[in-house]
Amino acid sequence: MPDLFEIIGTTRSMRRLKADPVPDDLVRQILEAGTAAANGGNYQTWRFLVVKDPEIKKAVQVWYKKAFDEVVGPRYATSAPPPGVTAEKYQRQHSAVAYLTEHFHEAPVWIVACLKDGANPGRGAGASIYPAVQNMLLAIRALGLGSTLTTRHLLHAKEADAALGLPDGVHSYAILPIGYPMGKFGPVGRGKLSECVYLDRWEQPYPAVAEG
Ligand SMILES: Cc1cc2nc3c(=O)[nH]c(=O)nc-3n(C[C@H](O)[C@H](O)[C@H](O)COP(=O)(O)O)c2cc1C
After folding, report:
1. For 4-186, which CATH superfamily applies?
2. Are 110 and 174 in contact (CB under 8 A)?
3. pLDDT of 5
4. Closest C-alpha residue for ligand 1 atom 11
5. Whose CA is nearest to atom 9 of ligand 1?
6. Which atom, in ligand 1's list, is nearest to the CA of 14?
């Protein structure tokens, strides 16, 4: 088992997944890691829908793809690569994103991270679910499985939640399509720390990260 910092540094999106089933005991381990995360007041208003049913996944994929065709695809085609990402790498990411769009529903298992409506609306709403999502992504990586944090279905949130059969007062925040990865794990690519970290005052450099 690699150490925690190696896991963190190599937990990148794995969008090409094999069809081989993921054993339920691994799914359970992932869910245990998710529910070990902090959440506001420890109220645990989270719910996790494990989806294997191909019809349900397909019904959601239709909205996921619609959002790609209308918004995400055109944006990739016209925007510059983000910090720390070469044009070639950005192009590879675009192809991988397009691939996942077409094959979203074929991932053998999804975990849909949901929250019941609670006392934390507005900017803080996702704060009680995304720590769990990140814990699950790290656990998935540690188990040699692949996934991607996806939220694009939220562009058609109402329709996607209906396709998932969520009751009133419960909303999805992320879908993790999980499977054995076709490709290899590698380091994540980000900008330099010195470009996003300040000391005391906005844009004042923090010398401890000058080299990073
Ligand atoms: C809030 C959020 C939403 C995301 N939604 C999607 C998505 O819907 N589809 C997708 O393919 N990737 C999605 N991603 C993955 C990012 O595109 C990806 O993490 C980023 O490009 C960095 O690449 P890496 O994970 O390979 O390092 C999302 C990531 C985050 C944090």
Report:
1. NADH Oxidase (3.40.109.10)
2. no
3. 96
4. 97
5. 150
6. 26
Q: What is the pLDDT of residue 57?
A: 98
Residue type, 97: V
- In this structure, the residue with its CA closest to atom 4 of ligand 1 is 150
Gyration radius from the chain CA atoms: 18
- Let me know: does 57 contact 104? Beta carbons within 8 Å: yes
Alpha carbons 159 and 154: distance in angstroms, whole number? 9
Which H helix or E strand runs over 136?
helix 130-142
**Ligand 1 mean position, distance from CA 86 (Å):** 17
Q: Is 180 in contact with 22 (CB distance < 8 Å)?
A: yes
Amino acid, res. 17: L
Residues 6+ apart with CB under 8 A from 2: 10, 142
CA 75 to chain centre: 19
The pLDDT tens digits of the residues spanning 98-121 come to: 999 999 999 999 999 999 987 677
Q: Which residues line ligand 1 at a C-beta cut-off of 6 Å?
A: 12-13, 15, 93, 97, 100, 148-152, 188
